Amino acid sequence: MTTQRPVRQAADLAMFGGGRAVPRELRIKAWPVVTEQDEQAVQRVLRSGRFTSASSGEQEIAGLEREWAEYVGTEHCVAVSNGTTALSIALSAAGVGPGDEVIVPALSFIGSAIAPLHLMAVPVFVDIDPVTFNLDPAALDAAITGRTKAIVVVHLHGLPAELDRITAIADRHGIAVIEDAAQAHGARYRGRAVGSFGALNTFSLNVSKNLATCGEGGLITTDDADLATKATMLRQFGELIPAHGERSYVAHLLGWNCKPNAIQAAFTRSRLKRFPAEAGIREDNVGRLLERLAEYPGFLLPEVPPDRTHAWHILRFRVNPAEFGLADEFAGPLRAVVQRALRAEGVPAAPYQLQPLPAQRVFDGIKAFRAEDFPATLRVLDDSFALQKAHLHPESGQLLARYADAFEKVWRQRDGLAAYATTAAYKPHWERASEIADEEWAAAFPQR
Ligand SMILES: *Cc1c(COP(=O)(O)O)cnc(C)c1O
């Protein structure tokens, strides 16, 4: 795509040399917020000399597990080293093993799909609902076979998936539901927190997430005492580690070594005290942004069905070509032009995922990727862009108001941008992703 020929009536857009809607000095505030209390919590651990879940008498990890279970409303919580290992451990504890099929949505973060693959289970990808961006229950039902052992239910961007319909389908077939709530801490479905619906459920504490630690971490929640014990064994070599006293070194199960770290647990406990208040402020800030954007019908805003709440981890916006006076076939090119115009104004609009998960090279040889199996995922990847991080900080209100100004500016210039979209060269993300894969590989391994 080139910009040498600015469309005249759109000349006030920053993309064509006009001023920015978002002043440069208005920066995205660092996430996670680190307070003096957080620092003290970390120092407490450094002075204690107890650094992992295997340290005799360690308190912070057990404390975080207790507090998160209480927050989610489950009997048990097991902390591990990150959200991806949390998912592998949850699947393994649920009995998933080599050759079993595990259903995974076609639009998610790669961790959702490699977790089963590490168990030598086969990820079976299912298309999404283009409005909620979550697993389409009808497509899920059609994908179940005699070998399906579990469903990874991702609450993408923070919106709970269709849990009632999905659990009903799973129950009918005797399949385990595992919620991947890495993006949805605190979101509720029919009054109940996510992470309390599946046999085991997982969260990530990665620095980018709504409940972040100072590094990496993961949490597994369950109501089942035996599954909690198995998850605890699987995080450390399949051993039963006593809270006090001698370790036997007997390995009962094929475990990993992915213990949680006490410093990170203490940091997260400290943050957890502020978490409900922060989530409330975020709800207000995002609510105000969406209220403004609702005035510009060319943007399709994230929808929240009345029976659930959104954790607002990521904001995904689709463009509506009809409102720009364009035919449907220009959805992708229009999105590309709008995204570019917003970025020039100072809004960090960017894709979240370039391709459906099954198109990732790591799954080559498991099943050929067929685009026609994932029309909703492809359409959403093509016609939407995401905002990440900027809205997580409680003091993001002013920044988001300027973002809304940028959307307004872009919307006012819709005719010029629409005309531009019909002539600019265009390549969908997934084609670019394939080229990137080749380029990166060739650069890393030049001899081959
Ligand atoms: C972040 C994320 C994960 C993985 O969590 P890590 O802690 O980064 O391993 C898994 N699933 C989803 C949907 C995520 O967003």
From TrEMBL:
Keywords: Aminotransferase, Antibiotic biosynthesis, Pyridoxal phosphate, Transferase
One Pfam family in the UniProt entry: DegT_DnrJ_EryC1
Regions crossing the membrane: none
InterPro entries (alphabetical): DegT/StrS_aminotransferase, PyrdxlP-dep_Trfase, PyrdxlP-dep_Trfase_major, PyrdxlP-dep_Trfase_small
GO biological process: antibiotic biosynthetic process; polysaccharide biosynthetic process
Keyword Transferase: yes
Coiled-coil spans in chain: none
GO MF annotation terms: pyridoxal phosphate binding; transaminase activity
Cofactor section: pyridoxal 5'-phosphate
SUPFAM superfamilies (UniProt xref): PLP-dependent transferases
Family: Belongs to the DegT/DnrJ/EryC1 family.
Protein known as: DegT/DnrJ/EryC1/StrS family aminotransferase
The organism's taxonomic lineage, starting at the top: Bacteria, Bacillati, Actinomycetota, Actinomycetes, Pseudonocardiales
